[in-house]
Design a protein that fits this description.
The chain is of the alpha/beta class and about 475 residues long. Helix content is about 30%, strand content about 25%.
């Protein structure tokens, strides 16, 4: 006999579990299905983000930053520590503990909000006589559910290079990159995106010689040019080697090495021999287990589930959110879509503004931005004014001992509306929230400039950048 629900969510990543909780808050009877589990079969909700993405990578970044500080910067503060040793097992173990805390937190939230959780693979199993959807759950215990509404939130998986599958021992995806058993002497990374830069930063700090190869001719082409140049300069100073404009040849693996032949930007043939290779060339939507064809769920030519602006699919009462649909593959974008869909199901008007979704790279320095870059706006022939402020002139940054980078505000030349904010420097991931809020309310650079910011704080750099739009920065 089938269990009946108002809403069944397939996938418990950021989009799925948040959608399930919000739908339950709105009075719906909700179930959420997720297949992530540990070796013992215990459920691990949270998707890629919690298990092998955002959360564990930040845990490793924090630990590796402490190691870097102890090795190279404590002495500046008068702290003498002697020989610093790395216990990689403990470092990885801490990361695993952080992940489990998040897994358990999601299970608690399901219980708190009366969301019924099913551990297993969820798939479409046709339609019931009353028009509701039949969903099968394959796991330790087979289940059959029916739902008036279905939200698909099955996420994405790492894209492999053609002919080079991930073995997670030498050729690593983001998953394998988080659990290397020993610090490699030489580490190669293909792809200078978020994952490549963050994982490259982790293992460089822990002692690996890291080379990142990027096919695009420009470093961080999606970011503002000034920000990208500042970040690349900082990474080079740290010892992170980045080559852009490369063309990768046929990669060869042996029992101990990976050889990456490539043509560099000048056309010269090169060869990179490393102990481990991280491949971070993007991600592809994960729809293989949905049994989508059986119900006619429409996918586009790239494998994404086709949806309209409200995340509706071609099937009645079937929705899709997160990495499995169009738009940036970001956890917070998935969360916003999950909330919006739950509210639309309840008859409300969910809101997602793609123009104010922030981007963050958690390297050191951190990189964050929202809105359009200066080069995008110039290509659109938009009349703009810009203002920048360096962290070198910020009192809190000096006290922290981290003065790399700057904050940049771009505003419309006539209306002063903020069109983009770009930050490279300490805690950029936190500072960007103010810019998102201002832009969501169609605020002006003058609004940021007139708001009182606590002193001394890093946030004053954003205020000063806004003042600089009008050429009246006070501290630079």
């Amino acid at each position: 006999m089938s269990s009946q629900f108002d809403v069944v969510v397939i996938g418990a990543g950021p989009g799925g579990y948040i959608a399930a909780i919000r739908a339950a808050q709105l009075g719906k009877k909700v179930a959420c299905i997720d297949a992530w589990a540990d070796e013992a079969g215990n459920p691990k909700p949270g998707g890629t983000c919690t298990n092998v993405g955002c959360i564990p990578s930040k845990a490793l970044l924090q630990s590796s930053e402490h190691f870097e500080q102890a090795n190279h910067h404590f002495a500046e503060h008068g702290i003498e520590v002697g020989s610093v040793k790395l216990n990689l097992d403990t470092l990885i173990g801490r990361k695993d503990t952080v992940v489990k805390q998040n897994n358990d937190g999601i299970l608690y939230l399901f219980k708190k909000n009366k969301v019924t959780f099913f551990s297993g693979v969820g798939a479409f199993d046709g339609k019931a006589e009353d028009g509701s959807w039949k969903i099968s759950v394959t796991g330790k215990k087979a289940e059959s559910l029916t739902a008036t509404h279905v939200i698909v939130a099955t996420g994405s998986v790492a894209r492999a290079l053609p002919g080079l599958p991930f073995d997670e021992k030498q050729v690593l995806s983001n998953d394998g990159a988080l659990r290397i058993a020993g610090v490699p002497k030489k580490l190669g990374v293909i792809g200078a995106g978020v994952i490549g830069l963050e994982m490259g930063s982790v293992w460089r700090r822990l002692g690996a010689e890291v080379t990142i190869l990027e096919a695009m001719p420009e470093f961080l082409a999606a970011a503002d040019v000034q920000v990208a140049k500042e970040a690349q300069k900082a990474f080079a100073k740290q010892g992170l080697k980045i080559e852009t404009g490369v063309k990768i040849g046929e990669i060869k693996t042996t029992a101990r090495t990976v050889t990456v032949p490539y043509t560099d930007a000048k056309g010269a043939e090169q060869s990179l021999v490393v102990d481990k290779l991280i491949v971070s060339i993007g991600r592809v939507p994960f729809t293989g287990n949905l049994n989508a064809d059986s119900v006619g769920l429409q996918l586009d030519e790239r494998g994404f589930i086709s949806v309209n602006e409200e995340c509706k699919t071609n099937l009645p009462n079937v929705w899709a959110v997160g990495d499995v649909v169009r738009g940036p593959m970001l956890a917070h974008k998935a969360e916003e879509e999950g909330v919006a869909v739950a509210e639309r199901i309840a008859g409300q008007h969910g809101h997602v503004n793609f123009d104010t979704i922030p981007w963050v790279i958690y390297t050191s320095p951190e990189i964050a931005w929202v809105g359009k870059t200066e080069q995008q706006l110039k290509a659109e022939k938009r009349e703009i004014r810009t203002g920048s402020f360096p962290f070198m002139a910020n009192g809190r940054a000096r006290a922290l001992g981290d003065t790399t980078g700057f904050a940049k505000v771009i505003a419309d030349a006539k209306t002063d509306e903020v069109l983009g904010v770009h930050i490279v420097g300490p805690m950029a991931s936190e500072l960007i929230a103010e810019a998102v809020t201002i832009m969501e309310f169609k605020g002006a650079a003058e609004d940021i400039a007139r708001i009182c910011h606590a002193h001394p704080t890093l946030s004053e750099a954003v205020k000063e950048a806004a003042l600089a739009v009008d050429k009246r920065a006070l501290n630079f």
